[in-house]
Amino acid sequence: MDQLTEKEDVYAFTPEGAELVLGANDANLPYLELLLGTELKVRGTSVISSRPSFMFPLFMKALEKLALSRGALSESEIYMQWQEISEPEAKGMDERLVISAAGKSIFPKSNEQKRMFRAFGSSSVVLVSGPAGTGKTFLSVIWALSQVLSGKKGKLLLTRPVVEAGESLGFLPGDLREKLNPYLRPLYDAMEYVLSPQQIRRLEDNGTIEVAPLAYMRGRSVNNAVMILDEAQNATRPQMMMFLTRMGENCQAIVSGDPSQTDLGSRAKSGLSDAMETLCGIDGVSVIRFTHNDAVRSRIVRDIVRAYSGRGDDAE
Fold first, then answer.
1. Which has the least CB within 10 A, 11, 167, 244, 261?
2. How far does the chain reach from its first CA to its final CA, in angstroms?
């Protein structure tokens, strides 16, 4: 075996840790080099850095611990782990946060997601804004399912404003459920991460999962439920107030959206932006604000969102 030079540093993985962190054929190595800003070499189950720093062993140890608890690491998970150890505010935060539903466990992948997890467990109203890829809809739906499937809540109610250019529900074929399906597809995608389409349909048939346009919420009182309002940037201020005041006993409301993608027109203020300003500071209300740095869908999505944010354009 070659001798290490004074300018090299080494981290020895366990055999399992090396496989899970580095990936098949060391596929994650170029990305690790990008984050660390140094050349890396693999010798057996050890990784050698050409430029010693305190961050190198700290990062490798954190990745191995993460991989041994969750399995093979994706690029987004590696990036979020890097972001956590390289940001001072990440130190001392609770690593045991988890949402479990239908046998699957979801962990936070950024500091703001950790705040969102805590808000789910402590607040009656959770308002979430941010760009694409930050997990707003996915985490909201998985949390709601965990509450329903564990019996802590009796119903999951999914709604969103139906605001699309050139179309209305009346012109779409089928019954209400079929009309709404294209608008609610992101919510179904999230549910299908833990449930089969057949299981979702059975829960819809027995009333455990209900989908409805926002306009159909008027006049109702919802009890023992988690209500999710998605794409809330397209809700007006009166609609937002109407939705939030539907809450009855043992009810939680989660509102999410991206204010930069409103379809309301220049003269109408987004109900989501208004609610985040108006309700901030009220006991029982949590406000979560994601940025492009919180994008976990993939590194390329984060870079795309950052590029568009810098230009001031809205991503479709």
1. 167
2. 53
**Do 75 and 105 reside in the same domain of the chain?**
no
Q: Which of 54, 70, 90 is the last residue of a domain?
A: 90
Buried/exposed code over 108-122 (b: 16+ C-beta within 10 A; e: otherwise): bbbbbbbbbbbbbee
| pTM reported for the whole predicted model | 0.69
| Same domain for 150 and 22 | no
Instruction: Answer whether 204's CB lies under 8 Å from 211's CB.
Output: yes
Q: Return the amino acid letter for 94.
A: D
What angle is formed at CA 48 by the lines to CA 42 and CA 53, rounded to 5 degrees?
150
Tell me: the pLDDT tens digits for 173-189? 566 666 666 667 888 89
Indicate whether 193 and 262 sit together in one domain: yes
Q: For residues 254 and 160, give the distance between their C-alpha atoms in angstroms, rounded to a whole number.
A: 11
The pLDDT tens digits of the residues spanning 228-278 come to 999 999 999 999 999 999 999 999 999 999 988 877 766 678 899 999 999
Residue 72 sits in the same domain as residue 18: yes
Q: Is 180 exposed, middle or buried (0-12, 13-18, 19+ CB in 10 A)?
A: buried
Using the Cα atoms of residue 187, residue 189, residue 195 and residue 198 in order, give the sign of their dihedral: positive
d(CA 113, CA 296): 10
